[in-house]
Amino acid sequence: MTLTESSPADIIRDHANDAWVGIVPLLHEYIAIPNVSPDFDPEWRENGFMAQAVELIAGWCRDRPIPGMTVEVMELPERTPMIVIDVPAFNGGSNDDPVLLYGHLDKQPEMEGWRDDLGPWTPVLEGDRLYGRGGADDGYAAFASMTAIEATQAAGGAHNRCVVLIEASEESGSPDLPAYIEALTDTIGTPSLVVCLDSGCVDYERMWVTTSLRGMVLGTLAVDIVTDGLHSGDASGMIPSSFRILRLLLDRVEDSATGAMLLPELIAEIPPGRIAEANDTAPLVGAYADNYPLVEGARAAVADPAGQLLARTWYGTLSVVGADGLPPTNRAGNVLRPSTSLKLSFRLPPTADPKAAAAAITAALEADPPYGARVSFSNVDGAPGWDAPATAPWLADALDAGSIAAFGQPARNFGEGGSIPFMGMLGEKFPKAQFVITGVLGPDANAHGPNEYLHVPTARKLTMAVAHILSAHSAR
């Protein structure tokens, strides 16, 4: 190599940087589309926002100068669409040993609390941060995946056949994904590497690889005690409050003093390797809970830094994420309300069985209703968690090399508290595959909440790291 020639790492870096100059304006367009997931927009097809987002991303993908690539928008009956991209092997790579790359384009709903100068559908680039719903979760994934493939080719590297799937129902628990995985059996083949760009990172200084994901159970707990609202001075004392009944029911599944789950199906033993991983990571990140906007004087439920990492990844939890039957405080009359409903979100340990957990929760909540009230736990849905298989030596080396080339620091592992149903499904379907689950969602990126943002330099660098991993996979 002469002094004027660029190394493959330099070419990958330059290609990714150049590509992201054009990607950021497209992410502005994507953020402006209110294509919330079907659970939050039952009329998604009629409203047309999902179709707009699909066409924006699929159109960009079709314009990529990648030899032999095919881009299809697949839509099974009564399902959200799926972008399916098939890229043939390059420069001696194998077509029979594919890589599967995954992302999604549907979004969470608006949520309250955005800064006055920001909004979910108003993209704003402020320094390195691109604010708006969905840019980081997970609109960037298609752009990063395709650019990583392009950069590998531009640098003269090899990669095996790549299948890129971009789905549109992940924020609803991926209910449509199993049907597509089945329909695409021949296209997907048997991948030996799965790359998912829908996870998080502890900081923006290196590539963070997710080694576990929690499962989940969602459902609506409803309590009805009378048929009409009653004057609280007249009826209270004789007639129990529907809210108090809810409190009694929740005490069946959660210790309200500690937050510990009370049902065996919501608890799992933490593998020793994951405990060691948390102990190894904690000195680097410190008290992880300090990254969150606690009000003055508040403290985390767990003080120990390693304990915090395990609490957010291996503990079962209950969150009340919505309510019906409660009027706003400024419109609340002095009335004993007839009913109250709460939407419950249970996070499950990665190895817990979501079907068994859902059945146990339903049985515990609906059995022997207090005071003979009408109690139901309905609209129940669940998704599996995931615990990564042992990392192959070639992949461990590739992760470090890719992270050093892109970030200047070796990669690190950590468990993630969220759920990606796709991973549990693929872990069962392809037990011999290696997994790279990573992403750009730092602790203050606030996915699903107000002021969500994409850290653009991390997205660029992650694109570079994935390119190095694709090349290493082909050469292993």
Q: What does this protein structure show overall?
A:
The structure is a single chain. This protein is an alpha+beta fold and 476 residues long. It has 2 domains: 8-213 and 385-475, Aminopeptidase, CATH 3.40.630; 217-281 and 305-383, Alpha-Beta Plaits (2-Layer Sandwich), CATH 3.30.70.360. It is built from 14 helices and 18 strands. The chain has helices spanning 8-31, 44-47, 49-62, 135-154, 177-183, 185-188, 232-235, 242-250, 272-285, 305-314, 354-366, 393-407, 421-429, 456-475, and strands at 70-74, 82-87, 99-104, 124-126, 129-131, 162-167, 193-196, 208-213, 215-224, 230-231, 317-324, 335-336, 339-348, 374-383, 386-387, 412-416, 434-437, 453-455. The strands form 5 sheets. The chain has a 6-stranded mixed sheet with strand order 1-2-6-3-7-17, with helices on one face. Strands 11-13-9-14 form a 4-stranded antiparallel sheet. The two termini are 24 Å apart.
User: What ranges have pLDDT less than 50 throughout 5 or more consecutive residues?
Assistant: none
The outline comes out as globular
Please summarize the sheet with the most strands.
6 strands, mixed
Please list the strands of the largest sheet in the order they lie side by side: 1-2-6-3-7-17
- Overall mean pLDDT stands at 96
Cα(first) to Cα(last) distance is: 24 Å
CATH class of the largest domain: Alpha Beta
| Total DSSP E strands | 18
